[in-house]
Fold:
Amino acid sequence: MKTKVALILSGCGVYDGAEIHESVLTLLALAKAGTQTSCIAPDITQRHVIDHATGEELEDEDRNVMSEAARISRGEILPLDNIKAENYDAFIYVGGFGVAKNLSSYAFDGADYDVDPAVIDLIQAAHEAGKAQGFMCIAPVLAARALGEKHVQLTIGNDPDTAAALVAKGAQHIACPVDSIVVDEANRVVSTPAYMLAKSITEAESGINQLVTAVLKFC
Structure:
């Protein structure tokens, strides 16, 4: 039986959705590992729509997070609300501002942020079921909120403000270079800085590949 992995996306594009390089690198690593991967996103409206060529907000344009994420998955996408932890062996959350805007309020509220209740429920249900979970780039803010009471060990690289926000939720932050990972054996959680530190797609690749390998070892 193939290992079943849920890849959670938050739209499409670094400034208002899932980081595309991180998403594709993760999909490639999972495909090479022979997993059965499902792409998943919440069926909600984006908080912002950004013109990625100019960086400007398109104030009169609305987009759906799941519809946008389907661009990355070549049309195959599942709504997050329908996902059950027991149906997958592992869960991986990629980064991008969609995590900070659509899956949480971190982009707007900083250390006082909260996370979409459906995302919290999924992370906690997966944890309770002993499933492996991976979080890259800014996505560890989700794990800190959901698993802070478990004192989960996480990394976002070395940014002091973001690290402090994770610690404020109860998580343990561990500084980490771009080409490495942090593995919390007790909580079965793996994290890597990815584009929190990466200056190129090749710099992001090493940590992402290690994260995928480590997550799958838990399965």
